[in-house]
Amino acid sequence: MKIEWAPLRVPLSRRLQTLVTACFTYTIISMPLLSWIMTGLLLYYGGLILRSLLMVYFVIIYKDYKKNYGTIDGNGWSFFRSNPKYRDYFPVELVKTAELPANKNYILACFPHGILGTGICVNMCMDIAKWLDLFPKVRPKAATLDHHFKTPILREIVRCWGMVSVSKESLVYLLSKSNDPKHEDNQDGFTSNAVAILVGGAQEAMDSYPGQYILTLKNRKGFVKMAIRTGSSIVPTFSFGEVDIYDQVANPPESLLRRFQNVFKKFTGISPLLPKGRGMFNYSFGILPHRRRIVQVVGSPIDVVKSDQPDAAYVDQIHGEVMKALEKMFEEYRDKYIPNAKQKKLIIQ
User: Which GO terms describe its molecular function (predicted)?
Assistant: First the structure.
């Protein structure tokens, strides 16, 4: 394989963008495992004081999870959620097509997942200034795996980025919050929570290849039920270009690799992908994402009638509206945001 090296003379701003992206990428990929390794080493080699402090830390994690599922209420510290260099690396854009009034809460049904869900992470977690400008008084959150909030060290990182647990209890906690400006939860001036859920999850990630928009949605109705139970509107969003920043080792449905990934996902909720990107100083191989544009288009909210016991027929109706909205969004914007758009199809499975 011929290696395409990055040129020596690259503007400092681009070098910094690559460095920041590398830090985020290595953190996201390595910390779920590295956090437990570091904790184990500290427990094994640490003295009495260090072990005692770790025990106190574990109790804090337990009590905090029992209280609010590890969520940081509000928008957290702006320092951790202002990373324009990460946005500019791709770049990642955010397109508003409708208002999101701050008098209700929202579930953003986000597609496609891609390898890491980068567009959603940038716009709603790691660099939220653009979101706050387009959707004032609406707090952006992104849901991720529940066990991240029970993992020492990793928990602190994802919380600072504004991520929340995707567990039912956590979503109910956030989406049931009051929209009254005078409520004690809204002393920060915000009155609404918008939680992004990558509905296709790990299953959809296994189908992520450049130029292929394959959504896992037909049998995913849990987010619709959650919206109905909490009275939250559903906002379909589509991230054009998300699938193009990484390739991955081929894993056809009946291949040995795919079978292994399915078994691993069944027990952990994570699909062990083998991404193919670029390196720090080359464009041919590595695990950094390629510099390719991602455009997250935020659709119009689909309002629901609140019910503690969602009717199956009503769930199917709203689910169908979400699928139609995504199909319409893809047809309306693909020529504008996808190279060679006529050759691209949307597959919902």
Answer: diacylglycerol O-acyltransferase activity
Q: Which secondary-structure segment (H or E) carries 143?
A: strand 138-144
Q: Which pLDDT does position 62 carry in this prediction?
A: 96
pLDDT above 70 as % of the chain: 100
Checking phi first, is residue 268 left (phi over 0); if not, alpha (psi -120 to 50) or beta?
Answer: alpha
Query: Which residues contact residue 187 at a Cβ distance below 8 angstroms, ignoring those fewer than 6 apart?
Result: none
Report the C-alpha gap between 116 and 144 in whole angstroms. 11
**Secondary structure of 12-61 in HEC code, one letter for each residue:** HHHHHHHHHHHHHHHHHHHHHHHHHHHHHHHHHHCCHHHHHHHHHHHHHH
Residue 145 has pLDDT above 80, yes or no: yes
**263, part of any domain:** yes
Q: What is the mean pLDDT of the chain?
A: 95
pLDDT of residue 66: 94
Number of domains making up the chain: 1
Residue 7 domain-assigned (yes or no): no
Q: What angle do CA 20, 23, 142 make, to 5 degrees?
A: 90
Q: Residue 1 falls within a domain, yes or no?
A: no
- What is the structure's pLDDT at 343? 86
Cα distance between residue 247 and residue 274, in whole Å? 9
pTM: 0.94
Structure tokens of 166?
A: 């995707």
Task: Indicate whether 1 pLDDT > 90.
Answer: no
Nearest to 118 by CA among 91, 78, 155: 91
Alpha helices, DSSP H only, in the chain? 12-45, 48-68, 84-89, 118-121, 129-134, 154-160, 168-175, 201-205, 222-230, 256-268, 312-337
- Report d(CA 149, CA 158) in Å as an integer: 8
Query: Could you count the other beta carbons within 10 Å of the beta carbon of residue 220?
Result: 18
Residue 6 within any structural domain of the chain: no
